Amino acid sequence: MKTNRLFYLCNLSLVAALLSACQPSGDAPIERFRHAAEGAYAADISNDGKLSVVSSIHHGISVWDLDNNALKYTWSQQQDNADNLVLAIDIADNNTHALTASKENFSLWSTETGESEGFWQVRESSIRDIAVSNNGNHILLGKSNGTVVHVTMNSGRRLEFLGHSDRINTVDMLPNGRVAISGGNDFIAYVWDTVSGQVIYQFNHPSRVTMVALDPKGRYAFTADSKKAAHIWNLKTGKLVNSLKYTNRQEVFSSVRFSPDGAHLLTGAPSRKVSLWVIGTGQRLESWRVTPRDDIRPAGAVVYSAAFRDNNHFITESSSGFAELWQLPVP
Fold first, then answer.
1. What is the value of pTM for the model shown?
2. Phi, psi of 99 (to 5 degrees)
3. CATH 3.90.550.10, applies to 7-327
4. Where are the domains of the chain?
5. What is the pLDDT of residues 84-98, one digit of tens each?
6. Which tops the pLDDT comparison, 50 or 14?
C-alpha cells in the first residue's frame, strides 16, 4: 500500500539528485499514459492494479480506470492554495473508497458512485499520512504532533494512539481496520490494536522511521528508516523475516507493495527507481526507473505508488504525471 502517501517526500529532491547516478537495469515500460499534464502531487494505485487516484494542480483529483486508461471521475478538495494541496491518497483494499488529504483537511469518497461521503478539517496539528479500511469503515490519520487518530465512521468513535513521542511520518492499516502500524521521528514503528490502543509489536530503528506498510492479507509488516535499515516482519509473531539487502549508502522508499502470493515486495523511491525484492532472501531481483518530466533538471520523479497488475506485469504512478506499465521478470 501504501502509496505512498508521505508528506516528507516533498523535500526529497536532493536525495533524488544524489541517487540519480545509480542506474537500474530494467527495460523501458511497455506502455505509458499521461494522468497529469504538469506533474502530480500525490497518487495511489489500488492493490489489484485496476484503479488509481491522482492529485494535480490542473486536474484536481482524478480517478482512473487502469484497465482501459479511462478517466472515471474528477473530484475537488479545495486545492486553492499551497496549504490545501492534496498530498496524501489511499485506496481501500476492496476498491470501494478512497481517502484524500491535504495538511489541514481530508475527504472520503466512494469510488463506486464518485460521490463525496464527507469532508473534515483537523485542528492543532497537520496531517502527515493516511489510511482507509474496506468500505470506508475506518480512517487512520498520522499527525505532526505525534498522535495517530483512528476513526470509526459509522459510530464516530475516535481513538488517539499516543505511543509516539515525536512527529508521525507514515501509517497503514489492515483492510478490516483492526490493526494499524505507524512510524515516526522517535525512531520507532508500532503495530497496535485500533480497538484497545494497545501496542502489539514495537520495532526500533537507528533513525527516524520513514515508511511502514502492512500486507493486506495479514502476513507481513514492513518498516524502513531514513538511513540503511529496511525490514520485513512476520505479523503473526513479530519476528524478523528478512532485511532488504542493498549496497547503496542509502535507500529511501516512497511506496511499498506486497505481492498477492507473499513472495515478493515492490518498492518505489524518490530517485525514480522501482525495485522488486524476494521476501525469502531480502535480495533485489530487478529494478527499473520511471519516466521523468522533460522540464525538470536534473531529471527526477518520485514513485508515488506501484502495484502488481498480474503475474507478469506491474504498474506505477509517479510525480511526473505518468502511469506506466512494466514487465515483471520471467521466473
1. 0.91
2. -115, 130
3. no
4. 7-327
5. 799 999 999 999 999
6. 50
